[in-house]
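Field: COMPLEX_INPUT
Field: COMPONENT_COUNT = two
Field: RESIDUE_TOTAL = 713
Field: MODE = joint
Values follow.
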Amino acid sequence: MKRSWLPQRWYVFLAVGLLLVLASACAPPPAAPAAPAQPEAPAATEAPAQPAAPKAPIKIGCSLPQTGPFAETAAWIQRGYEQWAEEINASGGLLGRPVELIIYDDESSAENAVSLLNRVITADKVDLLCGGYPGTAAAAQMAVAEKHQMVYVSMGGHMASFEQGYTYSFGAPPLMGQWWYDGLFRWLETVPPEERPTKAAVFTMNNPIGASVVDLIPTELENLGIELVVNELYDLPLADAAPLVSKAKAAEADMFFSNGFFADGVQTVQAMKALDYNPKLFAQAVGSIIPAWVEELGPDGDYVFSGTAIHFKLPYEGIDHLNQVAQEKYDSPVAPTYFLFGYAWMQALQRGVEGAGTLDQTAIRDWLKSHEITTVAGTFTFDERGLPPPYNFLTQVIDGQVELIWPPEVRTHEPVYPKPPWGQ
Amino acid sequence: MLYELVQSTVSGLLIGAAFAVLSVGFSLTWGVTQVLNIAHAAFALLAAYLGYFASSYFQVDPVLVLVVIVPLFFVLGVGIHQVLIKITAQRAHDLALSSMILTFGLAVVMENVMQVLWTPDPRVLKTSYTGKAIFVGPIAIATTHLISFVLAMLTIALLYVFVHHTLTGKAVRAVWQNPTGAALSGVNMGRVTNITYGIAVATAGIGGVVMSLIYTFDPSTDMVWLVYIFLVVILGGVGSVLGALLAGLIIGLTVGISGVFIPLVWVNLVLFLALILLLLLRPSGLLQR
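Field: COMPLEX_OUTPUT
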């Protein structure tokens, strides 16, 4: 019998190795560092003309999902980072130095996000960190940032991630599941009791995001006098939304919470429509804040209530400019939520660096914790956990537009309540 | 309770048929050629995109696009077999493992190409009947689910007739049951495997369109669909057309009905416990001979 020169199992290792190389070659390469725009040349003096040595760029590194299920949203975060870098370089840089972004693709894996953050810190030796996405990756990266004592500004991984005793992490703004429906419940308090929904059905994806979103719902409903008739978790991927909807319909719930992502959110909407279940109030969590909700669902995605920590219609300085940038550069009618998030996080980091006047991480941290900062997301102060005081805006999709409903000072449209029948 | 039970049973059956048609081609190639085509779901996803674009940009119903997709994917399947699988089969010591790694690589390449071409944006297929339903008393039958069901049953019925009542189909079965015996009996192995791959990828195309009528999708959705495919094939029995149908329906029903009686979060637990139990009783799956 002919003998192979390598044991058979080595062929397997070789094949796996080759496949990994192939896979990485096929994936989009790590984002090319944003080309640093050189600050303007210093004004000429009477000294002999010597070309000034270019200042070394400030390197800012992180990972984002450039491929995988979170890539669509993360692409906008990266664009927000790049827009900020472009603008700050054009205006003379950060502390007078250009900035350079180093962003790797973590393939939507929190494990990769951790190793890549370690890589930017230890191998690329970046000066500053940018935040990761989604919450699972950000929460995992917060521990890495803390270990290396580097300031980490991101959306965080909901309340639990900010209660780990980390001192270098900031949510500026954070995306807090626990605060998700804060705007909804505050608005419902203003609705006369007889006009409020009477029975609520709550369906939540079984993961840390879902757990954080559903956390305060029972208490808030009780405070409003709304009976919680169904409160269930479901595993992702959701194979069939009909059992959820039929349970809510059978329980005669007139308030329906679909605390899921885009895919299960869409399935739920389609099942609600098909089963002709039309509650007075339909709230959806994370899925309805991405542009695909209105683009892909069309009128069926209308009248859904949700929450957000940032929005393209907020009357804050810089929002109009970013809407214009999104339109001109990316052919997006408005600045998507995560574009604004990315930009706001970098602004918060910039405020800390400029405030501290140094790249010393502890000095930046201490400055941020002792000063008020303003970004396109609003004005923030931070507590010991790196969190601003609780807040969230209530949104509703109306005629394909995500409108701001609550608080009143930012309202862009009157709420449509109760929800009109499907197709109207 | 009765309303929930009947509604969830109907919905589960309709979805189960979609799982079955998505999986039957994978089962066939595994059974006949010992190849685990991990890229099967990626081909399904490709068909979903073709249906989506035909519907979105040319207002052509995705079901009608199958007239193009089925022959196109048949040729694609034959091509994949000739260019990739056949060569691997000739050289590999362990075909199942080698083909799994090879087709996993192919799936990754396809995912990345789709992402570059069509962005990572999630897609929702919208047709003139999306969101509409036929009501039988209080029970709603979503039109998209019903069309998916009819399409799936038709495909599986045709495949069953082909495999059991045509000469070529019998040759396919012969190769599946006893490759050496089939070769000794004069069965043209190359032709049979080519046809098997063609049919398998063509059914992946149908499965992709069927799934896209029910589910949203993006370039990484194939890995989610692959989980359903493995469930169906392992439960139904490798290589069995009827087994795939039965398994798909059982999975759909389990998902639907168990959600009525127990918390939804336990549905997957029930599903996998049932799978373990069935495999303990029938290790080769429900209908494998």
